[in-house]
Amino acid sequence: MLARGAAHERANRNRKLAYGYTLAILAAWFVMPEIRRLIDWRAGFHAVEIFSIVPQILMVPLVVPVVANWRHYPSTLRRLSAVWLSAFIYALFLGIIRGNATAATYVFAQFLLPLIFGLWCYRLEPDPVRLTRWLGSVLLLFGAILSVYGILQWVAPPPWDVEWMNNVHLDSIGEPRPFEIRIFSLLS
Question: Radius of gyration over alpha carbons of the chain, in Å?
């Protein structure tokens, strides 16, 4: 009886750690572009920053448990994941053949690692309703933060966003002036 209680306690502790790790990954996806822009504003613009890949780096360790538990996923989910993976392995192969191995690998990771993250989240909680509610509440909170920042950005663009817009020369995000920005909030 005591062993069962200890195992249950360990499972709860592991689940809390997994939820915290999931929250850290989601937070990194939401805030790292803004942190990159703040650093660029202070230290000078760089087209590629290490901060751009932090969310991907956080997801790399999830490959091991997803692969180790592959047989425990429903067959439909495994098949869909295999189709997704096959398409991007083909694209990776083409990128390497054309001499763009680094860029191809980066883009491959951008599409593969979120799939891995989703599969990992699937096994995170035995109760899918509970997991969906938790993820929904976290994403709703992040969405509210993004919305408030986006409105502020549209009304009075922060200087770091203005400088970033001037450096990247993207016509699709508008002009770096109040009421002329196509809002990208913390995400771009």
Answer: 20
Consecutive 10-residue averages of pLDDT for the chain (188 residues): 65 82 92 89 79 89 94 94 94 94 91 93 84 92 95 95 89 92 88
- Is residue 178 in a domain? no
CA distance linking residue 12 with residue 34, whole number of Å: 34
Using alpha carbons, select from 167, 148, 182, 134 the residue that is nearest to residue 36.
167
pLDDT of 8 reads 66
Q: Which amino acid is at 112?
A: L
Per the structure block, which two tokens stand in for 27?
Answer: 């937070």
- Residue range of the domain that includes 73: 2-173
Q: Has this prediction a pTM greater than 0.85? A: no
Spell out the residues 6+ positions from residue 46 whose beta carbon is closer than 8 angstroms to its own.
40
Q: What is the dihedral of CA 153, 154, 155, 158, to 10 degrees?
A: 30
**Two tokens, residue 91:** 């694209």
Q: Say how many C-beta atoms besides its own lie within 10 A of residue 4's C-beta.
A: 8
Calculated CA dihedral for residues 78, 83, 85, 90, nearest 10 degrees = 160
What's the rounded Cα separation, in Å, for the pair 105 and 100?
Answer: 8
Q: Is residue 185 part of a domain?
A: no
